[in-house]
Amino acid sequence: MLFAGRLPGPSASFYPNPPVVSRAGGGAGLGAGSQALPGSRTHRGGEERRESTGSDDALPSVANCDDVIEGQPFHKRPFPELHQSMRTLWRRFGFSRILFKVESYRISESESLTPLAWTSQIQKLSRAPGIFLLNQRKRFSTMTEIETNQRDSELFSPPSNVRGMTKLDRTAFKKAVTIPVLKVKKEIVSQLMRSLKRAALQRPGMKRVIEDPEDEESRLVMLDPHKIFTDDSFERAELSILKQLNVSPQIHKYNLELTYENFKSEEILKAVLPEGQDVTSGFSRVGHIAHLNLRDHQLPFKHLIGQVMIDKNPGITSAVNKINNIDNTYRNFQMEVLSGEENMMTKVRENGYTYEFDFSKVYWNPRLSTEHSRITELLKPGDMLFDVFAGVGPFAIPVAKKNCTVFANDLNPESHKWLLHNCKLNKVDQKVKVFNLDGKDFLQGPVREELMQQLGPLSKERKHSVHIVMNLPAKAIEFLSVFKLLLDGPPCGTELLPIVHCYSFSKDPNPAKDVQQRAGAMLGISLEACSSIHLVRNVAPNKEMLCITFRIPAAVLYKNQTLTLENQDDPPLKRQKTDVFAEEKTHIASVT
């Protein structure tokens, strides 16, 4: 393999009588045992022998090139011992490149490496060598260094003896490693560290600057061994700062002891759990509580996982695991305390509002924060909201703060209690009417009575909207049938008809269409032309949570109305594609 590049500096080792250079399979490939550095590509000469002919016989071989001298044309550089053995490629642009052979090499490429020929077609032509143009300084490393870098890839992994641990033993995580350090005067440490953020070592619970045991006037700056390998691993801007502060870029070795405090939670769990199994590093935070959903293969390690989550997340004092699905009447679930305190009384802040409750007795999902905010933004001051499954108030309280009238209901006595409490806590108790009823009874009672007043004969003078939120994804669609023939009397204007936001889960390949069809079936009409679908979140593989929004047609809501599409008073609706389901080509309409 031939390379055109700048001449290696004095640190390179040259062989006057190089071995024959060859290329396996017509091109360079990764050799056994070699590994690329992070962010670089690795190339290595092959094993197949090839006869060297013509002027190529005199080309030198490079075994290890650590630097490349810049700034001078090649024919002016002081390397007399190589002048007779190199072939210079002259360019019209006033500079030259020199071809040389490499015995075993690795190129750490940056964006400045531009291949002149990098295709198999060129390499096949007359078995022509691959040629590269190197415009910037490159590092050539021996296979020994590559193997060292491969070992360094697990430098910050916990020791292997913790595999299978089920009871946390923090002392078992001690590990000694060798890292590069930079020796600097203590007076300039602060100024220097602002420019070495990239190169400095960053590990949990670890100082990046330590005292020099051999010199009281100096400090040792710990460097990231994955970024700094040798003196020339610094970037140009970093070298400029070092030169400006009169700091030698010479790298020193330092023996560092890692402890449990220096490892990240995912590193600890990856080292403890059996190889190849999923690692739990995420959780839902509810105040001081970490809420996990562990899988079956993680259960033998559940107490260790809980303790790690507490240790590695400031403010978390309790870790719990859900042990059944939310399928009971009150929407709470049974949980097991994995580690930490048993106290489930917690306080959370969401979108600027404060909520207090007993997490073991009510439903709260921090992953719905964005959805709570989205619905709140849809309402304007003076609008009315009926929250059928209100929980502890994440919809009702923000909407009430916008000077809207709110009717909030929840069947769970605990949720009802904390809903009242949170309304007072956020100073909206005078704007929210709270009920403790079944959803059906709430719709047929307080909701019906209020709608009869709001949508009665004088309703044409009213310009505010009515919204009904039904956030019970497992069953909310079943409650839509309550709206059929719910009201008496003449129908109100179309623009005053209530707007429903109904949530549902779907495992269907086309979840938008599935939700539209199921909701339409409960109302006895098709909603495909008069509803919008919003993807709330992905709950599990092949399970989506969606919100369908629509105005209740007068033909559905009022008695003595003919249930035909022709008789609906709805104005023409602008049709649009559902963004999140565009691939399914589901057309829906905007609610205006």
How does this structure look, described?
The chain has 592 residues and is an alpha+beta fold. The chain has 4 domains: 2-146, no CATH class; 175-258, Alpha-Beta Plaits (2-Layer Sandwich), CATH 3.30.70; 273-343, Met-10+ protein-like domains (GMP Synthetase, Chain A, domain 3, 2-Layer Sandwich); 363-589, Rossmann fold (3-Layer(aba) Sandwich). It has helices at residues 120-124, 143-152, 189-193, 236-244, 265-272, 302-312, 369-378, 396-400, 413-425, 439-454, 511-523, 554-557, and strands spanning 2-5, 13-15, 61-64, 87-90, 96-102, 113-115, 132-134, 175-185, 209-212, 215-222, 252-258, 284-286, 289-292, 318-322, 335-340, 345-350, 353-358, 384-387, 405-409, 432-435, 466-470, 499-506, 531-540, 543-551, 575-577, 587-589. The strands form 7 sheets. It has a 7-stranded mixed sheet with strand order 20-19-18-21-22-24-23, with helices on both faces. Strands 1, 2, 3, 4 and 5 form a 5-stranded mixed sheet that branches. It has a 4-stranded antiparallel sheet with strand order 9-10-8-11, with no helix packed on it. The radius of gyration is 35 Å and the shape is elongated.
| Global morphology | elongated
Number of helix segments?
A: 12
CATH topology of the largest domain: Rossmann fold
* Percent helix range: 10-25%
- Provide the gyration radius in Å: 35 Å
Highest CATH level, the class of the largest domain: Alpha Beta
For the report, how would you describe the main beta sheet? 7 strands, mixed
What's the architecture of the largest domain in CATH terms? 3-Layer(aba) Sandwich
Uncertain stretches of 5 or more adjacent residues: 1-152, 564-592
- Number of beta-strand segments: 26
Class based on secondary structure composition and strand pairing: alpha+beta
Order of the strands making up the biggest sheet: 20-19-18-21-22-24-23
Number of domains: 4
User: Could you state the CATH homologous superfamily of the largest domain?
Assistant: Vaccinia Virus protein VP39
Mean pLDDT: 77
Q: Strand content of the residues, in percent?
A: 15-25%
Distance between the termini: 69 Å
GO molecular function, one term: tRNA (guanine(37)-N1)-methyltransferase activity
GO cellular component, one term: mitochondrial matrix
Subunit structure: Monomer.
Catalytic activity: guanosine(37) in tRNA + S-adenosyl-L-methionine = N(1)-methylguanosine(37) in tRNA + S-adenosyl-L-homocysteine + H(+)
